[in-house]
Amino acid sequence: MARGGRGRGGILNRGGLRGPFKPKTYVPRHPFDMALCEPVFPRVKPLPNEDSFTQALLKRNTDLTPTPQEQASVLNLVTKIQNAFDNLIVAPGNFDSCQVDESRQVGSFKKGTMIIGHNVADIVVILKTLPTKECIGALGNRILDDLKNSALTLCTNDRGFEISNAEATVRVLITTVHQNLRKLDPEIHLDYKIVQSHLAAIRHSRWFEENCHHSSVKVLIRLLRDLRNRFDGLEPLTPWMIDLLAHSSIMNNPSRQALPINIAFKRVLQLLASGLFLPGSSGITDPCEGVNMRVHTSLSLEQQDLVCLTTQTIIRMLAHGGYNTLLNGHSGFTNQTTIWDGVVVSPLDKAYEKPAENKEGDNEDMDADPGDEAMETVEN
């Protein structure tokens, strides 16, 4: 046989017979999690007393919880609009701009995680017909007419429309039945991704209702949403990511019992800081999607890096007793050097830098391997 020719079961090279090529299997890894590994690493001393931290968390949650008057005003408006849609489904009369299939409540008000000062509820309306931009305005005007309240205002947008009064707002999110998704025309209908996201919101709300019964999950969601609103580096986290983070951090442990709120709060930050939402991590699988899709893959590489470095700075502040500032402070604390109990905490630099786009006529990188990763790191 000639050198370099093909032999049985492999290729004959100078080094001898080599087996057939086997591509490497990609196996995502979960970052180290003390809550899952505690049976393997038993404690040598009891947990420190964190009663003051726990009380600070509960007090912050109380401050973030809407007042009974706010909740009642939102509930009153939601009930009226929901009844108007129910009547339209049963007896549309001469309304022929579109056909309503059903309406469902979603969002933070439905889940019980609404934050004070944000008196907004969400209703997803599923149409039997295609969601044209003209029919959205007609549907909004019909609901407004049925409510017969001059104090209400209507505002249309690219997702549907909003009906508001002086105390509350209800966002009506328009979508259509699944068989119509492929018929959508971006020039005359709502955007495909928007319509699809509204259908996903229904699945998320149903999953939350079935799995997030424990009150600690709702408390942690409210705290994390507040943290996201105040720290710019956590802004890429979506409400659905926060829901899954809170549920996993409280319920995903060997005992399958809810963890205390102080431990769960720190666990979320520790996981994000250790790379839970970075490339190569198993992350959290979306329970509402048929395929094994990890929720953090919707984030860009810049956003993944930003969330990680922000939580790394926050966890260092928290480790040196800065929880009061963390619960009531602002994003500036993660962007400047601070001192906590004599320990200097400096903000971290970005580890990811987006590659510069090649200009026309620039052939310097023509010989680069196309299989190389487009990830560049900045040396510290």
Automatic annotation (TrEMBL):
Cellular localisation: Nucleus
Entries under SUPFAM superfamilies matching the protein: Nucleotidyltransferase (SSF81301)
Ranges of biased composition (kind: Basic and acidic residues): 351-361
InterPro entries tied to this protein: DZF_dom, DZF_dom_C, DZF_dom_N, ILF2, NT_sf
SMART domains per record: DZF
UniProt record, GO biological process: positive regulation of DNA-templated transcription
Cellular component, GO, one term: catalytic step 2 spliceosome
Molecular-function annotations in GO: DNA binding; double-stranded RNA binding
Pfam families the UniProt entry points to: DZF_C (PF20965), DZF_N (PF07528)
Domain DZF: 24-365
The entry's keywords: Activator, DNA-binding, Nucleus, Transcription, Transcription regulation
Compositionally biased region (Acidic residues): 362-380
Sequence segments annotated as region (Disordered): 351-380
Domain of life assignment: Eukaryota
Name of the protein in question: DZF domain-containing protein
Source organism: Clastoptera arizonana
